[in-house]
């Protein structure tokens, strides 16, 4: 049964927001009740999640995948990748000063937490979403978290979402940082900036991202 989405009437939302709304609307009621209130107040997370659904679907197609069922599961997983953030301590998330090491560990726990939520409430239907929630902060060079997986050991779906996640994070202004334009974001992803490194990404996927850079930009702008 569909839930009522209090924000679904927001104006000026692109096509990806509709897609994100559909994913949230289809969540099992018990899971929905867990996240409903925090999601209603977190506009930034809703929009980030919706854009990732659209971007991951595009990258999946660019990677040559044509199975519409798999692409739909990939996009669903991308929408739900940060769902664990909705269970984090709001006081830590809202901190304006620097985070302590314990705060950082708490925030990093959003991947495993999200995976736990999806397993507990969704079961096997959320198999891909569970993998993506847990592993979307792994990096291709093995320097990511929570498991330090490297290369092909990182599930392909998580490698796709990780690439889209970094792009979206760099493009989007947040309370603590300004945003970069498309060209600068692509430069950071392909040359590195000290924090983001090209070695973090699956080289094949990064090449596709660069080759189809204008489609990525157009989709981000439309979302
Ligand atoms: Fe995340
Ligand atoms: Fe994210």
From TrEMBL:
MF term (GO), any: phosphoric diester hydrolase activity
SMART domains: HDc (SM00471)
Superkingdom of this protein's organism: Bacteria
InterPro entries: Cyclic_di-GMP/3'3'-cGAMP_PDE, HD/PDEase_dom, HD_GYP_dom
Domain HD-GYP: 23-223
Name listed for the protein in its UniProt record: HD-GYP domain-containing protein
Database matches in Pfam families: HD_5
Organism name: Elstera cyanobacteriorum
